[in-house]
Specification:
Elements (H helix, E strand, L loop, with lengths): L3 H10 L3 H10 L18 H9 L6 H8 L4 H14 L4 H10 L7 H16 L5 H7 L4 H16 L4 H9 L6 H17 L1 H11 L5 H7 L5 H8 L1
Helix pairs in contact: 3-5, 4-5, 5-7, 7-9, 8-9, 9-10, 9-11, 10-11, 11-12, 11-13
InterPro entries: ARM-type_fold, DNA_alkylation
Organism: Candidatus Wildermuthbacteria bacterium RIFCSPHIGHO2_12_FULL_40_12
Pfam family, one: DNA_alkylation
Length: 228
């Protein structure tokens, strides 16, 4: 079962000051960087996952307190618990996820959760929530919109990935360029022709990083054609 306080204590038992320093640099927590002020304990993802699984008895309202924490690994553990509980509380978890997106505020947290919560919930439902997120001023909301389509892509549904990537073509943030390029590449793994059709229409307008990510698995000769 587990409890709220013991989860926090367990995270601190696995903390490492040395790892925390490395993670704070890696995840750009310095002044003016995209995750300014984020605080790391220095807990690895496998350790956080094991700890989270010992605390699946927490109620959703307790999990959301963790999700609103200033500590990165507490937010990570909260999302891991939400993923584990998703099958039992899908509607509640999806709604809570959207209401608390401002705390899903680094790319690892987005990439861990967006397709498995938002994408999974919306695959056979109207997608207006994703399009609203894609037009948000918040970079993490826009990344959630793009990465959520990974669940659709894995189920051979590509159109929403293309539509959201089109919305994000003029985005200024490198993290969005990478996310859109990554999702286009994932489409290409399943339907090379569908990705190429999209690229032929839009590659000239794409940020260079988005294009490079999208064509990463292309044959060298074709990559050179797009980059020329």
């Amino acid at each position: 079962m587990g409890d709220f306080g013991s989860l926090r204590r367990e995270l601190r038992l696995f903390a490492s000051k040395k790892k925390a320093i490395v993670l704070q640099r890696f995840f750009k927590t310095g002044p003016g960087e995209y995750a300014e002020g984020d605080i790391f304990l220095g807990v690895t993802v496998p350790d956080a996952r094991r700890i989270a699984r010992r605390h699946l008895g927490l109620k959703l309202k307790e999990v959301l307190v963790l999700l609103r924490s200033k500590i990165h690994e507490e937010r990570l553990a909260a999302l891991l618990i939400m993923l584990e509980k998703f099958n039992q509380e899908e509607d509640k978890i999806y709604k809570a996820y959207l209401r608390n997106l401002k705390y899903v505020n680094n790319w690892d947290l987005v990439d861990l959760s967006a397709d498995k919560i938002a994408g999974r919930h919306l695959i056979n439902r109207p997608k207006q929530d994703l399009y609203k997120l894609a037009r948000s001023k918040n970079v993490w909301a826009r990344r959630v919109a793009m990465i959520a389509t990974f669940y659709f892509i894995k189920n051979n549904q590509f159109q929403d990935a293309f539509k959201i990537a089109r919305i994000l073509l003029q985005d200024k943030h490198d993290l969005i360029h990478k996310a859109a390029g990554w999702m286009l590449r994932e489409v290409g793994k399943r339907d090379f022709g569908a990705e190429e059709k999209f690229l032929r229409r839009h590659y000239k307008a794409m940020p260079r990083t988005m294009l490079r990510y999208a064509i990463e698995k292309f044959p060298e000769s074709k990559r050179k054609q797009y980059l020329a």
